[in-house]
Design a protein that fits this description.
Four copies of one chain form a homotetramer.
Chain A lengths: L6 E6 L3 H11 L5 E7 L3 H9 L5 E2 L2 H8 L3 E4 L3 H13 L3 E4 L7 H14 L3 E3 L2 H4 L1 H11 L6 E9 L13 H21 L2 E11 L2 E11 L4 E7 L6 E8 L3 E6 L4 E5 L12 E5 L13 H14 L11 H14 L6
Amino acid sequence: MLSSSIARIGLVGAGAQGTEFLFPALMQVPNATMVGVADVRAERAATLAARTGAPSFACVEALLDRCAPDALIVACEPDAQQAIAAMAIDRGVAVFVEKPPTLFVADLRSLAEHARAKGVVTGVGMNFRFSSAAMAIRDAIAAPDFGELVHISLTYAATKPKLPMWNLTSSFHSFMLAQTIHPLDLAISLGGVVARSDAELVHLDHDFAFAKHNLTFERGGLATILTGNVFPRFDFHISAVGSGSKVVSSTSLWSVDVLTAGDEAAIGSMKRGERQWRPSPLDSGYARAGYLQELQMFVSSVIEGSAFPASFESLIPVYEVIESALERASEPCAD
Amino acid sequence: MLSSSIARIGLVGAGAQGTEFLFPALMQVPNATMVGVADVRAERAATLAARTGAPSFACVEALLDRCAPDALIVACEPDAQQAIAAMAIDRGVAVFVEKPPTLFVADLRSLAEHARAKGVVTGVGMNFRFSSAAMAIRDAIAAPDFGELVHISLTYAATKPKLPMWNLTSSFHSFMLAQTIHPLDLAISLGGVVARSDAELVHLDHDFAFAKHNLTFERGGLATILTGNVFPRFDFHISAVGSGSKVVSSTSLWSVDVLTAGDEAAIGSMKRGERQWRPSPLDSGYARAGYLQELQMFVSSVIEGSAFPASFESLIPVYEVIESALERASEPCAD
Amino acid sequence: MLSSSIARIGLVGAGAQGTEFLFPALMQVPNATMVGVADVRAERAATLAARTGAPSFACVEALLDRCAPDALIVACEPDAQQAIAAMAIDRGVAVFVEKPPTLFVADLRSLAEHARAKGVVTGVGMNFRFSSAAMAIRDAIAAPDFGELVHISLTYAATKPKLPMWNLTSSFHSFMLAQTIHPLDLAISLGGVVARSDAELVHLDHDFAFAKHNLTFERGGLATILTGNVFPRFDFHISAVGSGSKVVSSTSLWSVDVLTAGDEAAIGSMKRGERQWRPSPLDSGYARAGYLQELQMFVSSVIEGSAFPASFESLIPVYEVIESALERASEPCAD
Amino acid sequence: MLSSSIARIGLVGAGAQGTEFLFPALMQVPNATMVGVADVRAERAATLAARTGAPSFACVEALLDRCAPDALIVACEPDAQQAIAAMAIDRGVAVFVEKPPTLFVADLRSLAEHARAKGVVTGVGMNFRFSSAAMAIRDAIAAPDFGELVHISLTYAATKPKLPMWNLTSSFHSFMLAQTIHPLDLAISLGGVVARSDAELVHLDHDFAFAKHNLTFERGGLATILTGNVFPRFDFHISAVGSGSKVVSSTSLWSVDVLTAGDEAAIGSMKRGERQWRPSPLDSGYARAGYLQELQMFVSSVIEGSAFPASFESLIPVYEVIESALERASEPCAD
């Protein structure tokens, strides 16, 4: 728990993600102040820092030394993020990194263990989990009349990456770390502990094109994740059905609809109960897609010294499903 | 009131409308039996009649003489319909005609007066008024929480006719009798007596392309009808707002949605109440678009000797708006 | 091949399905004539037959003896259908039955073998396969720019049956024969020979509630069918993605959309190519949901003596998937 | 034209609009730098200014004196805005104000004349005109195959204000200045010079509830604006039809669809051409709703010394329609 009610934040990585999402969202978190920016490309760091009058640095150590931040918010390549996270944890500084936090579950486990030992708050930028639609879906599922979760369907339609990234040899591995991590994390955050998982793949010309991930939750209920880089444009749909014969769904994070059983014949009386949410035509900023809420909650966790839901540790089950899928994929598959 | 519980129906006109809509819908009306078919093209009448074993005729008089129908259901050109309606009324036989029943309001008034004098049940094929969506909208508007009707918006997008029909000289007049009659009739059936109406037109190369009809109802409330033959495909939308801050709307007669004020901020709790109707994926037959209900109600009116809502008389206010618009259109207009 | 260009049809079963779907759709098939109606409840047969002047019967043999139909169209319970189909085939009379044609694959194989030996045309009422949406999707998938089929997603949301039917002991088995048969048949008709299938189930209080069927096609590509009786209302969605980065989808059989990759950034120029289909607001009759086309094609097959696509034989792979799923379900499952 | 390629911006008004929309959008304009913040509530000014290290002031004169801004961006009450704009123009400083810039057209004309005489760039925050959807619609209308504009339909559904604001006595006047100004401005920016306008109103309990504005454009074509405070939630729809039988429409600024005539019968071949735009599920920031583009274009105009499209002068025709509607409303109306 901080002595101050304002968290001092150091931003690391002044690339596209840092500049277009993390920085402007952070500017709207009331109990945070940006105390410095670091990027190995010093000019980019300086340009971004100039917007707030904060100092800029070409290396993270300097930022840590000079600015005494309470937390780092990091948007770099995974290898760099892993090293920066380790450094922050060593110094007892809270750390939030963009996804993927590491390339392998073993490294994630080490970092999570390290953070636990040091009592450091950690976070990963799983913005889907904090989107307005996901939060409404979580509430709808938790409502008593929803009943037990029966099935969650997630379609995460991507157009890239098509080639391996981050020195990995598998395009499927890269794709899962860059993209599948989002619907997997959301499914697990809604469904709970995974009892069993498998994956089916389609390759085109030996390159990864499409995957279906089948999850069974310990408490009952299934999830199906349909994803791949073969789609014509980026899109996301989620739908969950519960034992109370209710369906809650969202299209493109732009809507939430709750569908309830009604009197099928009663067109006149329209008895079928429904609820829906739509954002305003003027919806702006960083809340709807989850960027603002994840930073607000992370900053609050830093100030209070409490756990942030999307901690390093919380991602371990997601990585376990990813690595399990990767093992199966190295076996002969539908091609 | 008939002595029988089954109405004997003569079908007049075995063209597209009679064969594809009226005949099959009539076959599903339980308390009706088709006793004969007439069409000046005797072969068409015979082909259609053969499906049921009923006799066929080349002229209506023969059908009336031989089959003693309780009612005629007619789908011909307006001039023929007017003559056939007059003949049926003269004989005390109920008569239902496709729209438009006549070309001019004076003729419609005469027929309505004739029918009233003879105590004959009349009807016009205003199927929009009897569609599942329109009936649900009527119910929603009548619900106490809807409040007073404030405004009805109807967009009736057509692609034809582009040229004058039925020996009329005005393409706008033809268009109103062939198309605008539907949204006008629906607006008036929902809003009541018209206190005032006007129309604004757009012509392209001197041909009618688009019209906006503005109605003010006596009991308060407005209607706007946007229509024309310039649209890329046939479609229909309706939306009504009431003083209770409720909106009820339908897209393409495929949906009905009731929108109610809620807590704008409450995405989590989704308090905004909504109701909706959608037809089944397997929806088939003639009910949804109103063809079955209009015939069922007409047949019931014939059997009971009661007034049918879409009577000749009920169309007189629609024709008055049409002829008023026509007068204005003969003045110089936006071209 | 018939000597006549008009097929003589005997209708067997004057219950809801026969009266509300098969009979009126049949009335719109131009090259068919209904020559008799049979139902063990003689009164129902008589009522339906009276609409066309055809004779009615309380047993199928009498209809076959007296009316010499070219084909029977049958809507009864599966056991009766199986016996009637066998009788028709024995006599060389073509036969079309509602789904499910039999309860077990062994019986279906026997009937199909019998029909092949006798050279008899057979058919099953798989109307989804003949719906306007399914035909448009089939065309879109066959277009060269769609590429190879990568994945088909089918969500078939049902509300019933919840209990075993037809003297079966398994509610899952009954559900598959009553409902899953539709999306399975459609998936296989689009994807081809099934190389591998499995199913995952969710039971609630030991009763079947939800199933996911995973198919792998021999020529490559996957299918996922999500279904169950736990849903709040009946609905159907299908979406297919191809290696050409195209998606074709339909919601509720009311729409077809083809989505193509475009320039993501180009909002101004709107380069992204799309095609879509919507039925008219006035869409009526039996074509959109497939009832008319299946009968038209069956009647043409009868007249020409050619194979009907949804033959008894064509359903064997569907039953193989069903029985394979049933075997797995008898093992312990997620409950 | 500025000597620098970076415009020095003073922000006036640190209330909700300034803090939540103008400030964060301004932070993303690359060629702008915020040099000071002024608000009569000095604490609010200081809080906002602290985010960037800029100085804050309790009065605009001080900001102008000390910071030498190239432009003011102002979000205050209309009276204050008018005074601040006059002061800025006097000093030759460009000025952008939130809507409404003034309460009366006479004042707007004076300011516009003043700015023209001084050669000062002015702007009004008409963000709808700069939204992604509006820009795509403008492009679609300008495309040759759209043809002549026939009709624009705008539904601007609001829930407030219900009572007079800004010391005005008419709730209708307040509503038009607070809300109707947006769809009127957008309609005029798409349709051109207004030849004729009228308005029809609905009052409930003597309070303004609903208005329909009918516009006729000089170059041909009509517009209909449906608006009011009686709606259950804020929403916005626009649809335009052109003589080329094309429709371009947007729902809630979340979509743009272009609908083109096609072969109605061709469900299989899906020939009907369509284009559509949807924002990404992750769409964030201030571009989609137009806040970023209006500031970017204003800043570019300031730097280049060129006219900004949404200048004070450009709003005069909008105010003329507003005042004309107000005159009519003071006559007896449908109540």
